[in-house]
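Why does this matter for the project? Reviewers at the last site visit asked to see concrete outputs rather than summary tables. In response, this paragraph embeds two records directly. Each consists of the residue sequence and, immediately after it, the corresponding structure tokens. Nothing has been edited or filtered.
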Amino acid sequence: MAKDYPMTYEEFEKRVIELFLRDSTPEEKKQLMVDLDDLLEFDPEFIKNLYKSTCGYYDSHDWNWDKVFNDPLLLSGPVNTIEMSL
């Protein structure tokens, strides 16, 4: 049985992409999505691995780590990783 996390993979993927695009103009968003699509074509598991890593971090602590899935930590972890990878 799968463990319940504060976000499903689908919710995580959607939120991480929203945060990745958050301060971009419409033109920049188009280019960023092209770049992200290229990254995902090269490594289709990229965002899934970010989710697994976040879940692993969540699992490695004994107290309530729901905040691991909140925007500030998503920005400093998964979103930052995407930005550095492009």
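We now turn to the second protein, recorded in exactly the same manner.
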Amino acid sequence: MNDIGTLLTRWELNERGLREGMYRAPTPRERERWHALWLLSRGWSEARVGEALERDPHTIGQWLATFGEAGPSGMGFEQAGGPPPPSTQRLNPR
């Protein structure tokens, strides 16, 4: 199991750094992941964080594990599947 305190030390972050990550994240999903880490750092359990964010606790655990492996860069989100974002769709498809 990943201890958030140990991971923060490993990646040279603290609660303030998590909060800044939450505020500066470019997408809502990334903000949600940083928020989850911040709540974990405040002593919340994965189950409680999952309930608050309406996510499965296993999802919260996966985000924590990803943070443990990849650090801040692991909190990024890339669209997988579905239609492309509106800014990339062609205006006049033929």
